[in-house]
Amino acid sequence: MQSLYRYLPILDWGRRYDRAALSNDMIAAVIVTIMLIPQSLAYALLAGLPPEAGIYASIVPIILYAVFGTSRALAVGPVAVVSLLTASAVGQVAEQGTAGYAVAALTLAFLSGGFLMLLGVFRLGFLANFLSHPVIAGFITASGILIATSQLKHILGVSAHGHTLPQMLGSIVENLGQTNWITLIIGVLATAFLFWVRKNLKPALRRMGVPPLLADVLTKAGPVAAVVVTTLSVWAFGLDARGVKIVGEVPQSLPPLTLPGLSSDLVGALLVPAILISIIGFVESISVAQTLAAKKRQRVDPDQELIGLGAANLGAAFTGGFPVTGGFSRSVVNFDAGAETPAAGIYTAGGLAIAALFLTPLVYFLPKATLAATIIVAVLSLVDLSILKKTWGYSRADFAAVAATILLTLLAGVETGVASGVALSILLHLYKTSRPHVAEVGLVPGTQHFRNILRHKVETDPTLVTLRVDESLYFVNARFLEDLIQSRVTEGCKIRNVVLMFSAVNEVDFSALESLEAINHRLRDMGVGLHLSEVKGPVMDRLKQSHFLDELNGQVFLSQYDAWKTLTKPNRVQAAE
Amino acid sequence: MQSLYRYLPILDWGRRYDRAALSNDMIAAVIVTIMLIPQSLAYALLAGLPPEAGIYASIVPIILYAVFGTSRALAVGPVAVVSLLTASAVGQVAEQGTAGYAVAALTLAFLSGGFLMLLGVFRLGFLANFLSHPVIAGFITASGILIATSQLKHILGVSAHGHTLPQMLGSIVENLGQTNWITLIIGVLATAFLFWVRKNLKPALRRMGVPPLLADVLTKAGPVAAVVVTTLSVWAFGLDARGVKIVGEVPQSLPPLTLPGLSSDLVGALLVPAILISIIGFVESISVAQTLAAKKRQRVDPDQELIGLGAANLGAAFTGGFPVTGGFSRSVVNFDAGAETPAAGIYTAGGLAIAALFLTPLVYFLPKATLAATIIVAVLSLVDLSILKKTWGYSRADFAAVAATILLTLLAGVETGVASGVALSILLHLYKTSRPHVAEVGLVPGTQHFRNILRHKVETDPTLVTLRVDESLYFVNARFLEDLIQSRVTEGCKIRNVVLMFSAVNEVDFSALESLEAINHRLRDMGVGLHLSEVKGPVMDRLKQSHFLDELNGQVFLSQYDAWKTLTKPNRVQAAE
């Protein structure tokens, strides 16, 4: 029963559902629904799919997340970065506008959902940690630039293609002659309006005495206003006949039952992108969920979140959608509007279903330029190049990871960019730990403490070298220690004993064990003893399972002071300052 | 001048060269030369090249290593594992026996030499550390099995091909009908004789009163005896006319001047194998060099070794050779025979040059089966499956890395095997550090020490949680800490302060910094303070470069005891036992 509650969180909050929660959830649902209609159409456009796909992707996935997810406020659906990744992945296997394209998007959602489910069931959510914060920040920033650029063609009313910045810009410049001036005017005005709404409307409304929540809702409804005004203009002046591209016919229907294509070619081509989309979507979603949960001292379970998002994506795959995840802006609106339980999501789904059934004829004359404008304004808020400055000041390794991720995402595409960022941050981490800090220490006079001989005035002994290793020992730094000890011992002829102080060593892997054995043999060949001190319990347990301690050409001392007392008696001298 | 000595170690030992060293080096050179002649022919056969290539690869490379290398005893030339890797890489771009095959082998040596040089000049020798000891051990064992299997065809006198164990065995079984019985008899007798020599000759000679060094040399000369006897047999009984495959004509010549092929196709196809060969060769060589150096309290410089091995491979590329490295058995013989300086290598090269000029007609009738027997006996000593047992007892992660390396090397080939082993050991390490040990600690009564509340009887306070983090914080475990703190704090309603004890944290990267900021914000939202204690100097320096400390919803305490005194005053209670 306990585990049923874990896998079906709805059983937990559903039992305690009351009238107050119902009314709060309903209000939140209405607000979110209004905001989601233009957003869903826009992200479908970004993903290269027909507009209704965006609405379908927001109905069943929301309901499934409400059943399986653990966040109270997360709103699941199409988001900008995942839509871009979808366009990039599906564009490689099918032509936009064909039936194959839509099927490939379903397959991508299916694979992504399956992968998330697997991670959740096997509790492998930690894999998402391989995406470091700088890599994510760099990737989101570069994606924002790519997405905004990809929408320029709709603003200009030209056709263009490409998945990297140079390709897109080149293609736009090439076709600049086809610019449709009416489209451009609509696009520029809509963009300017939306920027103004985002930046100035809320303070203006507050000054006019509008209560904060309403001001917030009106601000978020900016895109709806832009949609209404531009749609009416196109209809009134017949601008579609003058070359303004419009959304056109959108079927009036509930989400259809669809089947993802599962041919081995298609699966093979989309598997890696699906894994990437899953992990990036999960990272975005879990960050939002944890931030919102903390505000109410609730918690989310990352492994159960994987199952919730997996279910949502599987739902998208069978109901005409495309890959989805928990979005930042819609979740914040949901939270701010007072959603108390995932039931708010279910009501939102209901609202969208009504829209899909009855409201789609209203967007027939909606210009694509308006949708492009809402996308541009939304994603440019993601672009934050300050991460470059912040990481530069903090750590050059992190800076290198951000810079490489941004550059490669822009110049070589989203998949290459994020994969290189991950590989680089792992390599840089391994490099850092490959040369651990090792301090030669001596006794602080009058105490039992040992400190770095380079920083402190300490007692030493010419026959004894004590090295404090400030890192776990494993294969990447095992040989470093061998080299270090060999070079330290060959430079001092009087050395008779080496002590390794293990107070900061949390692990000794098999490679490091073999290095310690090699060090032991070599020191024995030189007539030098090897000792250990302050070995932690778990490390000692491991060492006892090997023959190292039997063969050790020296002793293991509980404390470094014991080692000092035993090994230096006749030779102690005062250190030079 | 100092740096000239560093890059040209010959200037250092050359100045002090005297008559005693000369005579010792000469004796060692004669012994090594005799051993190297059959070995060179055999490894050329293994690499799929004509026999003279093995001798050429042992002349100029030895001289160049003597000039640039830092080991006094290392003997450079073709070795079994690198020859196998050569056959595998070159076999993918050219047909064995063609001119293109020989050129590709030169290209491989050139690329490998260039890559080693680059690593040496940029002091990137640490990259070799990514090969963990278990991966190397597994790879060498699997390679030994593959090499021995690849030589079975010469023992049976059948033709066979393939680069994986199933391919080779399948191919041999298919052609078993063509077995040449005389070849088989020669091969089996030679193999049995060599095994007997290796196992029993030395003790037998010692019992007969032969001095140890001479006994050792006679044992190592076993392959020479096998070569002489089988060559004479083939010549005397005309066995080559009865289908026994022989070495045949070998040109009488000094190493020729050759040029590696540098077409972009060839370079592209061989670049990755060349990198692999370089790193594996370097790892083998540096282990031998360090072991021998330690016996005389000398040291080798790993970065200069890269330059020495790089020069040797470039030399091989321009003089009709193939990739080389420092070999274990030849180096040990050189060392045991009393070589004092790299000059011994130069004399060995002279001996081999004389052999190349005058002795090659003597091996005309040498059966290939004899060479195959010497290879089999040599490489089976590399096969050591005990590594599986040893790592199983010590650590399951290391066991998984060994097992995967062995299986994939045998079943999918050498490159896949070693690459998978490296990837798996990195992933397992990241996994281990992704869930660091975090202990909740309390005060040991009557002291200022804090210990794990699960293991010790300590004082705690319901309003205070102190977590000791036993690992550096970086992107792989940053989110783990977020989850841990969030779940710990949400389960206790009285908690008002969280202290993170940083005594074992050697690094906080940018991802971990952002996680700490997120933890700080979330705890503030919950009305809980976040404090740090015992932060190390370098970590504190880093944190001061960020805004974290300004925004910290709490304090940084020098010692955990200070934190305890400040935060618990009114609430202290005795812990339940």
Oligomer: homodimer
Count the beta strands of chain A: 8
The amount of helix of chain A comes to 55-70%
Q: Which protein chains are joined by the largest interface, and how many residues does each one contribute?
A: A-B, 72 and 72 residues
How much β-strand is present in the residues of chain A? Answer: 5-15%
**Which sequence of strands runs across the widest sheet of chain A?**
4-3-5-6-7-8
Q: Low-confidence stretches of chain A at least 5 residues in length (pLDDT < 50)?
A: 572-577
Number of domains of chain A: 2
Radius of gyration of chain A: 31 Å
Helical region count of chain A?
25
Sum up the overall morphology of chain A in one term.
Answer: elongated
Structural class of chain A: mainly alpha
Main sheet: strands, sense, barrel of chain A: 6 strands, mixed
Intertermini distance of chain A? 69 Å
Mean pLDDT over the full residue set of chain A: 87
Task: Tell me what the structure shows.
2 copies of one chain form a homodimer. Chain A is mainly alpha-helical. The first copy, chain A, folds into 2 domains: 2-402, no CATH class; 438-571, STAS domain (Transcription Regulator spoIIAA). Chain A contains 25 helices and 8 strands. Chain A has helices at residues 2-7, 9-15, 19-46, 51-56, 60-68, 80-91, 99-121, 133-156, 165-174, 181-207, 212-220, 222-237, 264-295, 302-318, 328-336, 343-359, 368-380, 386-394, 396-412, 414-434, 475-491, 510-525, 537-544, 548-551, 560-568; strands at residues 76-77, 325-326, 438-443, 450-452, 464-469, 497-501, 529-533, 556-557. In chain A, the strands form 2 sheets. In chain A, strands 4-3-5-6-7-8 form a 6-stranded mixed β-sheet. Chain A has a two-stranded antiparallel ribbon with strand order 1-2. In chain A, β3 (438-443) and β4 (450-452) form a beta hairpin. In chain A, α10 packs antiparallel against α12 (222-237) and α19 packs antiparallel against α20 (414-434). The radius of gyration of chain A is 31 Å and the shape is elongated. The model of chain A is unreliable at 572-577 (pLDDT under 50). At the A-B interface, α8, α13, α18, α20 and α21 of A face α8, α13, α18, α20 and α21 of B. Chains A, B: Keywords: Membrane, Transmembrane, Transmembrane helix.
